[in-house]
Structure formats: structure tokens, C-alpha cells
Design a protein that fits this description.
Chain lengths: ~350, ~350
């Protein structure tokens, strides 16, 4: 594994040098669409009928809450560029408390990885996981657990942008020295946050599996909480998920199913400021231990700790950091090197 | 008004005849982006700290629910075609219990009005109203009212697809004779439904006004509940909203501000099966009464009752019906006729 990683590090340095002069390929989208996958019907009974005025001035409507609800479906939007450089589509799966918007833009209004992959010739699917964004969510009668709401103070340190909590007083805000997160747009990032449940993992894996069955073979790129969804769905559909890119995975595959990934190369990318964080050293170690099982079973895993190859300052939200395109380029170069796309 | 409407009806017949032979223009998108507008910070205090495991296997995180929350922001996605045929963008605002997905696809997987307007040379903005989809929603500590959840049975008659309730037994389902709603995909439509509050109108109008301030002058096209948002925002920003298309508006403008719309031409479109509905005759009458005030104040209003011009079978969700492109073409032709776009 060391030799493999070492070769890869040299490759990365080459890639970094070469992209400094690369031009941004044109965006030229010839197909846009969306759909929902999955979901199940749940019946609710014995509740009283309600009269609801949905818009002021309109007649009240009688709403009978008894009946069937469709829940746990998942929203997916896709974009096809005019010139494809990969026979496979790439699926971008976001992390917890967020939606597909993660990949669409940055807090300072630059393009995200969605546009990068479209520009680089990938048919690109961006989804909102079950319960989030355009996927909708179910009533307390159906999901017994409470949703979690994030304060704007919390992600500042949890996503390794800076130490302590965010403050609306700039003088009290401590960003890590050299941080590449565009902190001037921090509240734009917070506008993307949506409530989250902690008990919908099985439903989410089911919906992602349905998505993979519908549109793959493919490459799956995931972030954070999506680490679990990506690895477990790839383990369930190893013939469909041809490559797996894990960006700071905070959830994991099934160690007992390690062999199922032996033909699915995995790339893992970690940012900066991990050693000074209370949670991230352990989260990374869990994945590194799992990697050993993947490799023992004949699999291929490349790990990039960005600071080790000279790329410093990345937060947990590296797809939004100032050098987001540099990291996307590393990923694309890896996919080209693995034979999944043309340069 | 009668003369104006009569001229318009003749025009429509001409348009219907001419589009039968029209080719679909190519989709050629050179810019895709998204952003959130608006939102406000709300402080919550005196709640206990919670330990939450966000992903199975990851270390628990201490979540302090006390602090500031950013709520009532609104998500917007936009697409720029290579060749613009209008100097103005068009903003597509959906109805209650739904998101921008309303305009992205149909229950049977055809393209929606989003793609139609892009193909016809409009920079197109599709948003998720406050509380819905990618806009996120606030905790019960911040919004005191309960969200409403729709059963899959309910919209069948409320959206004038058929009589009675939807049943999962096809033999018990009664679709209106001649209905153009693609009922075979009814559950796909239900997958788009999201919970809704009935007390967020002011916040929604505020966010839409911020959107208009950011990206207009423009044309605003709204559906159903959006009737209120479109008319009230246009009344607040008559210099920015240059034309208003109301598709079965179920919410209304301020009658006392009728004069503010005197320079904003309005097009209103109604589908079929209204007379046999318990609510729609009244909802339409409220708008017709308001139209009189608009016209008395010097404004211009064109009303199309589709069955009166020979287009029968449309539900409340005409942007998803089998003839959705025919209706989009009527709208585009009206905008061309009013001078807002090239043919």
C-alpha cells in the first residue's frame, strides 16, 4: 500500500503543477432533468379531519389526515454535457444536514464540483438524500425520532473552519491560520443547512440503492455522512459502482463485506487541521482500519491527506474551499488514471 | 376588457395551429448556478445540551441547541441558454406543498416548463419557496404552527385530476373523462409533495422580494398558492416585475394596491373541470373581481380559460399534463406578443 500511495503522491504533484495552466472547459449542457426514486406507502388512521385555509383569502379545504403517505423517496437532478469524456455518469452524494446544493455553489458564489464534472465531460447526478431538500420528510406519526437543528455557531469548529464557535462579532471569530474556507460567505453556507434525523440511514441506503439500480454503472462520489451510504451501497451493488470517491467519510462500510469492494477502486481525501480536532483523528482512523480490510481482500485504496502533498488549509467542506477546483482536478485525474474517463 | 380578451382568443387559436408543426429548440445551457437569498438570525436560549451520534460508528458530537439559527432563506437555481431571446429572465414560482421540481419534470418523465423556457431562450430561475425543499425549515421553537402533511389520496380531487379520492386500487380510481394528467405517474407526482406550513406567507413574500431585487427586471410566472406571492411581490416591486403570468392562482394580490400593477401586464390561465369542483369557481371569481380593479386602474389583464379556446382536459397541474408544452407555448407567444421576447 505504501508504494501505491507513494506513486500516487508523485502523480499528484505533477497534476498540481499541470493544472495551474489549464483552461476551464466550456459548460455545454444538452439535457437537464430530475426525478424521484423509491419511497413507500404508509397508512395512518384514526386521526380527526381538519379544516385548513392554505392561502389567505382562499376557501378552507377539509384535510383528512387519515390515509396513505408516500415517504422516504429521494430527489435526483441530472445534467448531460454535449461532449462526454466518460462512459459512466458520476453521482455526487452530500453529507449530513445538507442537500445536493453542497456541490452547486460555494459560500462566495463560485461554481461547485457539479459544474466542474459537467465541464469535464461527465453526465452528473446530484441528489438530496432521504428526508432532505426536495426529497421531503415524514410526519412524527411515521418517523418517531426528532429532527436535529444546527445553530450557525456549531459547524464553524465541527467542519474545521476555525476554533471555538462562530460569532456574529467578527472580532470574536477565530478562523484557522491558512484556512481556505471562504469565511466571508459563512452565513451563505448556513443558508444551505437543513434539519436532519439520525434514524433514517436504512431508508437512505435503500433509496440510493434504487438510484444506483436505475442509472449505473457509475462512479459515486460522497462526502462526510455519505461515506456510509457510498460504501454500503457499493458493497450491495459492486457490479454497478465502478469507483468510489470518499471525501472525508464520517460514516463507513461494513467491515464484514470488505471483499465485495475488491473490484471497486477507492479514493479517499482528507483536508487540513485534523490533528487539532477532537473527533476527526478517530473518524479517519476508523476508515484507515477499514481500508486494511479492503486491501487484504484484494481491493485498491488511495488515500490523499492533502497537507502531506503540500495542499494546506482545507476544511471539511473542501468542495467549497477557495481551491475547490484544484481538489476536483485531483479527483478527475485519479479517475482518468484509473481508466474511467478521457483526459 | 371583452375586446382585448376576444382578440387574444383569436390569437391563441392561431398559435395552437402554428405550434403543431414547430420543432423543439435545442437545449444549450452555458451557465448553471444556485444561491440562497434572505433569511434571518433567531436566537434560542435555555435548552439543555445534547449528545448526538450523527452517523453510526462515528464519535458522538455535543450539540448545544442554544444559539442562533438562520431561518426563512430561499433556494434558487438558474440556467442560462447560449442564445438569449429575451433581455429579461423568467422566474418560475411553484404552488403550495411543492417545490421547484414542479417545473422540472412530469409524472411520466417528460420535460417540464423549466426546459421549455430555457430552450426558448430565457435565462430561467427555479426556486423552492421558504420552508420547502432546499430552502430548509425552522424548528417548532421558531415557527409555532404545525406543518401539514398531504395524503396521496387528497390531491387527486383537489388538483382536479378526478373525482373522489385516489385509491391504490385502479378499479376504484375515477379520473375525469378527457383528463390530460398523466395519471399512470400519479405516485411520481406524490413523491414531489413536501410538508407545508400555513403561517409563512410573510416570510415567503420577503424572500421572493429579495430575489426580485437581486435578479430582476424580469417576468414572474407563478402557480396556485404562488398567485399571492407573485401579485404581492409585483405590487411591491412594479418597476422590477415587468410581466406576471398567473397559472390558476389560488392566492391573490392586495386589492387596495391594484394601481401599482398598471404597467405590469398580467396573463391568467385556467384549466378544465372547474365548474364541477367545490372550491375552484370561488377561487377563480376572487381573481376575476381583482382583475376588474387592475383594469379600472389602467392595467392590462388577459384571461385564458383553456376549455373556452378548445383546449380541454387540463388539471390544476397543467405544467405536468400531457399538453404541457402547448400551454407553455401559449405563454411564450403572449410574452412575445407583449414585446418581452423574440419569437
Amino acid at each position: 500500500m505504501f508504494k501505491q500511495l507513494s506513486r500516487f503522491v508523485s502523480y499528484c504533484f505533477f497534476a498540481i503543477t499541470s493544472i495551474a495552466h489549464a483552461q476551464t472547459p466550456a459548460l455545454n449542457v444538452v439535457e437537464i432533468g430530475s426525478f424521484h426514486v423509491g419511497g413507500r406507502l404508509v397508512e395512518i388512521s384514526n386521526k380527526p379531519v381538519k379544516s385548513v385555509v392554505f392561502s389567505p383569502g382562499s376557501a378552507p379545504a377539509l384535510i383528512d389526515p387519515n390515509g396513505k403517505y408516500l415517504v422516504e423517496q429521494m430527489y435526483v437532478q441530472y445534467f448531460t454535457p454535449q461532449i462526454l469524456k466518460s462512459k459512466l455518469p458520476i453521482l455526487l452524494w452530500h453529507g449530513g444536514g445538507l442537500t445536493g446544493v453542497t456541490y452547486e455553489t460555494t459560500p462566495d458564489g463560485r461554481e461547485g464540483w457539479q459544474q466542474f464534472f459537467i465541464r469535464n465531460g461527465w453526465k452528473t447526478y446530484v441528489s438530496d438524500a432521504v428526508e432532505r431538500g426536495r426529497s421531503g420528510w415524514a410526519s412524527p406519526d411515521i418517523w418517531p425520532s426528532e429532527p436535529q437543528f444546527l445553530t450557525v455557531e456549531n459547524p464553524w469548529s465541527r467542519f474545521r473552519i476555525g476554533s471555538g464557535a462562530w460569532s456574529d462579532d467578527p472580532a470574536k471569530r477565530v478562523q484557522f491560520q491558512g484556512s481556505l474556507f471562504p469565511a466571508e460567505g459563512y452565513l451563505n453556507f448556513m443558508r444551505q443547512i437543513v434539519p436532519r434525523w439520525t434514524t433514517t440511514d436504512a431508508a437512505t441506503i435503500k433509496a440510493y440503492t434504487e438510484l444506483v439500480d436505475k442509472v449505473c454503472p457509475c462512479v459515486v462520489l460522497v462526502h462526510s455522512q455519505g461515506g456510509m451510504f457510498g460504501q454500503r451501497v457499493a458493497q450491495a451493488r459492486p457490479d454497478k459502482v465502478k469507483a468510489l470517491v470518499l471525501v472525508e467519510p464520517a460514516g463507513f462500510g461494513d467491515p464484514d463485506q470488505a471483499a465485495s469492494l475488491k473490484n471497486t477502486p477507492v479514493l479517499e481525501i482528507y483536508g487540513d487541521f485534523i490533528d487539532q480536532d477532537s473527533r476527526w483523528p478517530n473518524i479517519r482512523k476508523t476508515q484507515m482500519d477499514l481500508n486494511k480490510k479492503y486491501i487484504e481482500a484484494g481491493g485498491s485504496v488511495d488515500v490523499i491527506n492533502l497537507p502531506e502533498i503540500g495542499i494546506k488549509g482545507n476544511s471539511h467542506m473542501m468542495m467549497m474551499d477557495r481551491n475547490n477546483m484544484q481538489i476536483a482536478q485531483l479527483i478527475n485525474d485519479w479517475l482518468v488514471r484509473k481508466g474511467f474517463a478521457e483526459k
